[in-house]
């Protein structure tokens, strides 16, 4: 049953309403244009990158397989969040079913964690490439990529399953208006009539365990990489080593900077507009996805050449 958020009746809800900037129609209008362009850019650029890696035999290497996995994760995250946000902006389609809401919650949590884990594996790849170049082909091979993909999938699927389950088991007795554009765990569970302490604790512990451990390992990898680069005597060798890591490092900055700003605005939520964390949450699902393939496409000669070869074949 669909109820207004101010209803005092104790009736279990079957749908939620996403209040996605509905109090600011002008903001919806002006956001819809750049958001739709970013969505089209993310889907198009990642599709081109995936097709290029798949069809070009020269790109059938571990690093590009990992980049393809990252593109796939970005596309799923975009499709999970952005179309619904645009439907709210354009047609005021705010209702989302009970089960669709928790499915969206699960996909967002699990795929963001998978993306973070993929960055960590890519950092390890760059660490081996710079610090142990002679051993790189024997360590980073197709078997390594297969094992890494299984680890990324298994770790994050299992650790994030409790998040929607803990929220879904709560009793929602009347309020059904989510003050967000997406079914974020805390935004949804906050509507229930039950104690949400376990939900908050698991969200906090799980988030810092998964994303925090990945970030620490990425930091350690680049610390060892920087130390190895500084020991290189040739300026050309140093520049080449830094160039191989620059694209990946920029991608990590995209992913973590928006996430950090989002966390900080939540901490200081009394000092900023409540719309700011909501906007950052939406943008975190589309900006990295739109920029990741462009950064690698522009800064990686092998990918540019692969796209050029495919275009020539098409002509």
From TrEMBL:
InterPro entries for the chain: GPCR_Rhodpsn (IPR000276), GPCR_Rhodpsn_7TM (IPR017452), Olfact_rcpt (IPR000725), OR51/52/56-like (IPR050402)
GO biological processes: cellular response to lipid
Principal subcellular localization: membrane
One MF annotation (Gene Ontology) recorded for this entry: G protein-coupled receptor activity
Keywords: G-protein coupled receptor, Membrane, Olfaction, Receptor, Sensory transduction, Transducer, Transmembrane, Transmembrane helix
One GO CC term on file: plasma membrane
Cellular localisation: Membrane
Gene3D superfamilies membership: Rhodopsin 7-helix transmembrane proteins
SMART domains: 7TM_GPCR_Srsx (SM01381)
Keyword Lyase: no
The keyword Membrane is annotated on this UniProt entry: yes
Domain annotation G-protein coupled receptors family 1 profile: ranges: 45-296
Membrane topology: Multi-pass membrane protein
Transmembrane spans: 29-51, 63-90, 96-123, 144-166, 208-230, 242-264, 276-298
The protein's role, per its UniProt record: Putative odorant or sperm cell receptor.
Name recorded for this polypeptide: Olfactory receptor 56A3-like
Organism: Phyllostomus discolor
Name of the gene this protein is made from: LOC114500423
């Amino acid at each position: 049953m669909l109820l207004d958020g101010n209803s005092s009746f104790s009736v279990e809800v079957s749908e939620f309403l996403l209040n996605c900037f509905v109090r600011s129609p002008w903001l919806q209008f002006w956001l819809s244009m750049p958001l739709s362009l970013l969505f089209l850019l993310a889907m198009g650029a990642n599709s081109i990158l995936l097709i290029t890696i798949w069809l070009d035999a020269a790109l059938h290497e571990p690093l590009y397989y990992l980049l393809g996995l990252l593109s796939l994760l970005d596309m799923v995250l975009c499709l999970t969040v952005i179309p619904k946000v645009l439907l709210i902006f354009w047609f005021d389609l705010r209702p989302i079913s009970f089960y669709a809401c928790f499915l969206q919650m699960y996909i967002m949590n699990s795929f963001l964690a998978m993306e973070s884990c993929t960055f960590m594996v890519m950092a390890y790849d760059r660490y081996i490439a710079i610090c142990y170049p002679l051993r790189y082909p024997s360590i980073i091979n197709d078997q390594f990529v297969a094992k890494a993909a299984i680890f990324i999938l298994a770790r994050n699927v299992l650790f994030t399953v409790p998040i929607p389950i803990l929220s879904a088991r709560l009793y929602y007795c009347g309020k059904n208006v989510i003050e967000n554009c997406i079914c974020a765990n805390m935004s949804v569970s906050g509507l229930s009539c039950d104690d949400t302490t376990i939900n908050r604790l698991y969200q906090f512990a799980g988030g810092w365990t998964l994303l925090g451990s990945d970030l620490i390992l990425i930091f350690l990898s680049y610390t060892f990489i920087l130390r190895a680069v500084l020991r290189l005597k040739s300026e050309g060798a140093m520049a080449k080593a830094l160039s191989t890591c620059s694209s990946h490092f920029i991608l990590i900055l995209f992913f973590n900077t928006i996430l950090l700003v989002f966390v900080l605005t939540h901490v200081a939520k009394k000092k900023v507009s409540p719309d700011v964390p909501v906007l950052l949450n939406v943008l975190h699902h589309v900006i990295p996805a739109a920029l990741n393939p462009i950064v690698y496409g522009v800064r990686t000669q092998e990918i540019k050449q692969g796209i050029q070869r495919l275009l020539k074949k098409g002509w």
